[in-house]
Write a sequence for this structure.
């Protein structure tokens, strides 16, 4: 009798457990990092970026990994520390980190915010003194004029969407249920000086069936809701648009009798996304839709001081190479939406940037007068850098490159937190 044994070939690991998507397994604090070039001395504060980093073994999808914060502290021309900390919460608070009314909040849209310290230690869930009882979008907007925090939450049960407004002190002052037809996947929204803009699109929850809990609907339609920021939920005015998927907005503003809304839009759930402009004619009730560029981009960011008012520049990550649906090479793009000019910053072979943010040189400097900051993974060295670019000379070599003590896994969103002045 002959016996043959054959080893079954192992299942390939999912993308989020391989390469630089794979989690790091420990928390570090390293002081006084090496800098190549010159860090602008006025760049004093902390850059923090959030991202999924499974803590207790593999997760079924990238989006379910525990949140991990990676922070670099810059101080008067020196890189004082790098540290990474898991967000110590029962849910995966892994998408963004913002600061409002003195509180740093790690965010994921399926759970309450989690407060963390300036040293990135978890303090605990934050629910606006009991006012928030459901997950909060990871993309709240801070109004530069009023200091208000505007946001929304979605739910699988009616009301599927709720709009909220907190005042500059962090007190929740408004909560408005918004009527939409189904549990729509609403990741981001936008504000102008007077309005909140809600995106009711044909990407719907299917009851958390994994691995992808959302699906495209051919029947649902698509519309942009315009709600006065202090209006009642039933005051939303809806503007139909062509069906599409919008994960992130860049900004919105009012201009004459119109609202301009810049987003990154895909024609379908899985299609390549482009920088795209909607112009809503408030008098005639119609919307003009047009791409601003043909490149495949995501993670649009602006100078946060322009939130709700006219912006000229949008920074975005261009996906240059996609393998099995996963971006493998990226460059940064800076769009001048006034002239249509687009500038690239390419970090070179094997150097892959994440989301890039803009930091003004001073609180009152012009929109383009400042720095673009991001983490860059170097595939050749299997480690990462924090890179500071001159935003006004975007294609030029970096002003400063901070050598980090480890690779920073690809993540999601980050922000710059200047020292309170
Ligand atoms: Fe996002």
């Amino acid at each position: 009798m002959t016996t043959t044994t054959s080893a079954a070939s192992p299942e390939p690991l999912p993308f989020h457990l391989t390469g630089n998507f794979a989690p790091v397994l420990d928390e570090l604090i390293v002081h006084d990092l090496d800098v190549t070039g010159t860090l602008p001395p006025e760049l004093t504060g902390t850059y923090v970026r959030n991202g999924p980093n499974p803590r207790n073994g593999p997760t079924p999808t990238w989006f379910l990994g525990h949140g991990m914060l990676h922070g670099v502290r810059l101080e008067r021309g020196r890189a004082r520390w790098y540290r990474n900390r898991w967000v110590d919460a029962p849910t995966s608070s892994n998408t963004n980190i913002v600061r409002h009314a003195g509180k740093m909040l790690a965010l994921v849209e399926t759970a309450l915010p989690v407060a963390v310290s300036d040293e990135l230690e978890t303090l605990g869930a934050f629910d606006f003194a009991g006012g928030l009882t459901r997950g909060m979008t990871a993309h709240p907007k801070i109004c530069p004029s009023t200091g208000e925090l505007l946001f929304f939450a979605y739910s699988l049960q009616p009301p599927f969407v709720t709009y909220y407004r907190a005042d500059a002190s962090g007190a929740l002052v408004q909560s408005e249920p918004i009527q939409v037809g189904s549990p729509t996947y609403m990741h981001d929204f936008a504000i102008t000086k007077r309005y909140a803009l809600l995106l009711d699109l044909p990407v719907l929850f299917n009851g958390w069936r994994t691995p992808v809990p959302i699906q495209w609907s051919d029947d649902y339609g698509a519309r942009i809701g315009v709600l006065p920021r202090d209006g009642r939920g039933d005051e939303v005015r809806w503007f139909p648009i062509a069906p599409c998927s919008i994960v992130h907005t860049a900004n919105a503003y009012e201009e004459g009798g119109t609202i301009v809304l810049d987003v990154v839009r895909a024609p379908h759930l899985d299609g390549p996304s482009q920088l795209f402009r909607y112009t809503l004619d408030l008098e005639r009730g119609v919307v003009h839709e047009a791409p601003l560029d043909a490149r495949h981009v995501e993670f649009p960011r602006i100078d946060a001081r322009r939130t709700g008012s006219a912006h000229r520049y949008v920074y975005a990550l261009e996906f240059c190479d996609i393998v099995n649906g996963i971006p493998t090479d990226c460059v940064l793009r800076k769009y001048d939406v006034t002239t249509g000019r687009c500038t690239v910053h390419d970090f070179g072979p094997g150097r892959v940037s994440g989301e890039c943010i803009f930091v003004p040189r001073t609180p009152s400097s012009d929109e383009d007068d400042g720095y673009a900051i991001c983490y860059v993974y170097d595939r050749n060295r299997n480690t990462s850098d924090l890179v500071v670019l001159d935003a006004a000379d975007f294609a030029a070599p970096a002003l400063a490159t901070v050598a980090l003590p480890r690779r920073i896994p690809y993540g999601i969103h980050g922000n710059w937190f200047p020292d309170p002045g």
Summary: The chain is about 0% helix and 45% strand.
